[in-house]
C-alpha cells in the first residue's frame, strides 16, 4: 500500500480531464470501498493522461494508480464518518483555480471549451463530486498527522539508518538576508511617466496604434517580450496589486483605463474579454526614472541602519522589519528563501549578489548598493551573509533542518499507515481479480477477502 497521500498526488489525479474530452475505455466497476466505487476507466484514463504529459509510465502503473484511488476513497469515506466538512465555497474556489490553470495553458476559456467539447460550467459540474472527494481526503489526512512532531533524537535515529554511501552531496550554500528600500522618484519623472501613458492612451483611442504594439515597444513590464502585455486575471486572486484589479474591473471590453498608480509604477489597462470574475487584459507599465540624488538619499539612510547593525544595537531581523520595504522579507526576518528553506546555492542568486558575497565574510553586512529587482524597480539594499557551507556530504551538523524535515515526513507516513491499518477492517472492500498480481495491494486484498466472508 502506498504509505501516504501527498497533496501533489491528489491534485494530479484531479486535473487532466479538464483539458481533454473523456476517453472511451471499456468500463466496469473494478473496486469498491464502502459506498465508493472505482471504475476501470478511472485507472486507465489516468495512465493515458500521464502518457499525454510525457511522464514515464512504469510497467505496473495500473497498480500504483488504483492504490492511490483506493486511498482517496477510503480517506473520503472516513472523513464523512468523522463529519469532516469541505464547504461549497472551498470546492468552487478549487474548481475555479483549475479552470484558470487550464485556460491559461490552452489560450483562454474559449479554447479550453473547444478542446474539452464542453462549457466551463459543464466541466465544473462534471468534476464537482470528485473535487469534493479529493478535498475531503486531503483534510482527513491533515487531521491524522496534525499532531505529529519530530524530536532531534528521532531525526538522528532516522539519519543513522541511511547507508552512508547513499547520503546526498550538497554544493556550497549560503544563507543571506537583505534590507531593501526603494528610492522615490522626483515629481518631474513621475509626471513624465504619466504623460507618456496618456499619450499612448490617446493613440489607442484614436486607433493609430495598438496597445500590444506600444507595450512591446515601451512597457517596463519584464514579461512584455513574451506576452505583449497580456494577462489572464481573476478578481479574487490575492497575487495581483489591488489597484490593478480595481482599475481593470471598472472597464468594459475594449475600453482603456485612465492612468493609475500601483506599487510597480504607472499603468494603463485595456479590457480584452471578461467573464464574471475572470478577465483577459493588456497593460503598459512605466516606471518613473530614479536619479542619483534619490538613490544617494536611500544609501545614506541604509548607511545609518548598517551602523546600528555593526554596533549590535539592533538585530538584522529587527532592522528588516523596521526599515525594510520588501513585504515578503518581513515575514522571514529578511532572509531570502529557496526550495530548501533559507539555504541557497549560487545559481539561485543574481550575478550582482554573487560578486558581492565573494568578497564578504560570514556575519558581515555589506555597504548599501543599488540594484534592479525582479520587476525592474530600482532599489537599494544591505546584504547580510549569515552562513556559508563548503561542498559536503550530508551530516547532522550542517544539514539538520533538512534531515529533520525528511524524518518528520517519514513519521507522518508511519502515522498514516498505522491509522489505515486500524480502519481498514471496518470498511467493505472489493477489488477485481484483474489487480490480483499487484504487490502493493496485498493489504487491500487481505481485507477485501475478509469483507467478502
Helix content: 40-55%
* Count of the separate structural domains: 3
Q: In this structure, how is the largest beta sheet organized? A: 4 strands, antiparallel
First-residue to last-residue Cα separation: 22 Å
Proportion of strand residues: 15-25%
Number of helices: 17
Helix and strand string, N-terminal first?
Answer: HEEHHHHHHHEEHHHEHEEEHHEHEEEHEH
Question: Strands across the major sheet, in which order?
Answer: 9-4-11-10
Q: What would CATH call the architecture of the largest domain?
A: Orthogonal Bundle
CATH superfamily of the largest domain: Porin chaperone SurA, peptide-binding domain
What fold name goes in the CATH topology slot of the largest domain? Triger factor/SurA peptide-binding fold
Question: Unreliable runs, pLDDT <50, ≥5 residues?
Answer: 2-17
Describe this structure in words.
The chain has 453 residues and is an alpha+beta fold. The protein folds into three domains: 7-149 and 409-452, Porin chaperone SurA, peptide-binding domain (Triger factor/SurA peptide-binding fold, Orthogonal Bundle); 170-184 and 291-393, Chitinase A, domain 3, CATH 3.10.50.40; 187-286, Chitinase A, domain 3 (Roll). It contains 17 helices and 13 strands. The strands form four sheets. It has a four-stranded antiparallel β-sheet, with helices on both faces. Strands 5-8-7-6 form a four-stranded antiparallel β-sheet, sandwiched between helices. It has a three-stranded antiparallel β-sheet with strand order 2-1-13. β7 and β8 (278-286) form a beta hairpin. α3 packs across α7, α4 (88-105) crosses α5 and α4 (88-105) crosses α7 (128-145). The longest helix has 28 residues, at 396-423. The chain is flat, with a radius of gyration of 27 Å. The two termini are 22 Å apart.
